[in-house]
Amino acid sequence: xxxxxxxxxxxxxxxxxxxxxxxxxxxxxxxxxxxxxxxxxxxxxxxxxxxxxxxxxxxxxxxxxxxxxxxxxxxxxxxxxxxxxxxxxxxxxxxxxxxxxxxxxxxxxxxxxxxxxxxxxxxxxxxxxxxxxxxxxxxxxxxxxxxxxxxxxxxxxxxxxxxxxxxxxxxxxxxxxxxxxxxxxxxxxxxxxxxxxxxxxxxxxxxxxxxxxxxxxxxxxxxxxxxxxxxxxxxxxxxxxxxxxxxxxxxxxxxxxxxxxxxxxxxxxxxxxxx
Length: 275
What we know:
This protein is of the alpha+beta class and about 280 residues long. The protein has helices spanning about 5, 20-30, 40-55, 110-125, 130-135, 140-155, 180-190, 205, 240-250; strands at about 60, 65, 70, 80-90, 100-110, 165-175, 195-200, 225-235, 260-265. It folds into two domains: about 5-155, Mannitol-specific EII, Chain A (3-Layer(aba) Sandwich); about 165-265, Alpha-Beta Plaits (2-Layer Sandwich), CATH 3.30.70.120. The strands form two sheets. Strands 1, 2, 3, 4 and 5 form a five-stranded mixed sheet that branches. It has a four-stranded antiparallel sheet with strand order 7-8-6-9, with helices on one face. A hairpin with a 2-residue loop joins strand 1 and strand 2 (about 65). Helix 5 (about 130-135) packs antiparallel against helix 6 (about 140-155). The mean pLDDT is about 85.
């Protein structure tokens, strides 16, 4: 599934106007009802699905973006479009800032794996620093569609994962700010399960030893926590995964506080997949 092919240009709107969150959801539902795949559901049902999802937790990601989405029973294909508000709309975003760009997704209820990967891909595209300015500058549906489609195609997540020899993939992160981005990237790449283990930096122990008390701060004991992501991957995607993770962490040969290990597996039985 290529995300850029799902974006429906006919439903995109570069001049979206709503006064508040409730009005935004209503207008989004009205626009979604124009899609042939959703037409039979009607505006009220589509609005209800979006509102129920928002009650769980806001889809306003922060940074000016939101991804309102819903799972639809009986839907046979994904419906995705984008609307942009130049002034921004209060949408209960995680950073309490107004939302300018809304990427709307209605997904078949029986295709959760693809739904998760699509959300992860869109989220990573919206995290790019320049994309907000580019999208809000688009004046036509065509320009909006082309800008977002180009950003989507720049992502390198494959449509399928090659099968073959397995490797144990271990990612240690001392900076928890990287954790969400790395997990999103793994989902986007088709990794369907991983274990996240809590660990501690050795500096938090060493600085407490009497012998090394004078070196307080030398080993960054302020970074006590570490997160270790463990998953099983196919050897064929190892280098592509490393490249993608380094887009998040920076060059691992030059950065402290992050380590990636890939180990050969002689035997494996079972799965970490939770999707």
